[in-house]
Amino acid sequence: MKPGRSGGGLLGLAAVSLLAGCGSNADSLHPQGPGAKDIASLWWWLLGGCSFGMAFVTALLVLAWFRRKSMGPGREPGERAGWIVILTLGVGVMIAGLVALFVVADVFTIRGTEAPAAAATSLTVRAVGHQWYWEFDYTGTTAVTADEIHIPVRTPVRVDVDTGDVIHSFWVPELNRKIDAIPGQRNAIELYADKPGVYRGECLQYCGLQHAHMDFLVFADPPAKFKAWLADQERPARAPASALARRGAQVFTQECQSCHTIRGTSAHGTVGPDLTHLATRTTLAGVTIPNSKTYLGSWIVGSQRIKPGNQMPDITLTNRKLRALLAYLDGLH
Question: pLDDT above 70 covers what percent of the chain?
Answer without folding.
Answer: 83
